[in-house]
Amino acid sequence: MTENGPGQEPESVGDQRLTSLDERLRAIQHAEKVRTASAQKKPEKGYSQGNRVLTELIAGIAGGGLLGWCFDRWLGTTPWLLLVMLFLGIGVAFRNIIRISQERPE
Prior knowledge:
Blueprint: H1 12-39, H2 45-75, H3 80-101
């Protein structure tokens, strides 16, 4: 390609093709930015609440069961404290799940 000096007309076909290519490339880059920006948003509130509900349910049952088992071993009341603490853990888990479900979205 030759350099165009002042007063010389640009190469019409080559420059038009390059300009057209630049415009299409910018449009594609903009579309890609829009697409990837929407994909990088943080998870929705429902996903977070679901994880919290699952954690509360597992922790309530496991925590109650573990405490009941430990107290049974320590006091020799097998299996009664295990059962009582297990049901208390389930109750606490359900209470926390109800609290989570009543939270207002931000």
